[in-house]
Amino acid sequence: MITLCGFPVSNYYNKVKLALLEKGIEFTEEYVNTGSKDEAVLSASPLGKVPFIRTDKGTLCESQAIVDWLETEYPTPALLPADAWGRAKQHELITFLDLHLELVARELYGEAFFGGTVSDETKQRVRQKLDKHIPGFQRLASFKPYVAGEHFTMADCAAYTNLPLVGMATKAIYGEDLLLKHGIDWKAYAKLLAERPAVQRVDADRKADTAARMAAASKK
Q1: pTM to 2 decimals?
Q2: Which CATH number fits domain 2-73: 3.40.30.10, 3.40.1190.10, 3.40.1350.10, 3.40.1620.10?
Q3: What kind of architecture, by CATH, is found in domain 84-218?
Q4: In angstroms, rounded to a whole number, what is the distance separating the alpha carbons of residues 216 and 33?
Q5: CB 172 within 8 A of CB 127
Q6: Contact by Cβ (8 Å): 50, 5
Q7: With b meaning 16 or more CB within 10 Å and e meaning fewer, what string describes 183-210?
Q8: Per-residue pLDDT for the chain (220 aa), expressed as one digit of tens each?
Q9: Stretch(es) of the chain classified as CATH 1.20.1050.10
Q10: How many helices (DSSP H) and strands (DSSP E) are in the chain?
């Protein structure tokens, strides 16, 4: 049995959870916050990051390593093409989504979502990168209707969990959604994916966790 460790607000946790659900893999969930100093967490995820999984083979951290293992261990239904080139193109898209879009935009989250403050220098630097990286991603993505083409794939697990964050964060900070500005209609894409039962489960759990966190914060 696989145990997915993390929390439902985390986009990378949801990237793995979406892959598990789409593949129909039986799993349980263990609530673990990021940054834990617990030795049981650090032995599985040395930087205290989530997600990570516990399996009968041992533990595994880093979302992409996890979903790649899932694809190998549970090959059907497939989330990657059978040919090496097609798989490489999927990883190309995922790299852009995780590293060149979400990781860059993440510097804005403190102010965009959590009431903190981000320096003007950081905002300017992030915008310059995103104004370069988003058109680059757009050259690779197809949205016909899924991010890599006609079929739901592993790249959609990353796109669905990352693009809304980039869009909402840039709207909050710059007053305009940089994805929409560059012609990426992520809202229509998200609406399409929201018809999938696996996505509905992920969204429902994320909203419930968000509500619980807000309720807990209000009592402090």
Answers
A1: 0.97
A2: 3.40.30.10
A3: Up-down Bundle (1.20)
A4: 15
A5: no
A6: yes
A7: ebebeebbebbeebebbeebbebbeebe
A8: 999 999 999 999 999 999 999 999 999 999 999 999 999 999 999 999 999 999 999 999 999 999 999 999 999 999 999 999 999 999 999 999 999 999 999 999 999 999 999 999 999 999 999 999 999 999 999 999 999 999 999 999 999 999 999 999 999 999 999 999 999 999 999 999 999 999 999 999 999 999 998 888 777 6
A9: 84-218
A10: 11, 4
The secondary element (H helix, E strand) that includes residue 12 is helix 11-23
3-state secondary structure of 153: coil
Query: What residue spans in the chain does CATH classification 3.40.30.10 cover?
Result: 2-73
Scan for tokens 């964060």, then name that residue.
169
Which residues, 6 or more positions from 30, have their beta carbon under 8 angstroms from its beta carbon? 3, 4, 5, 54
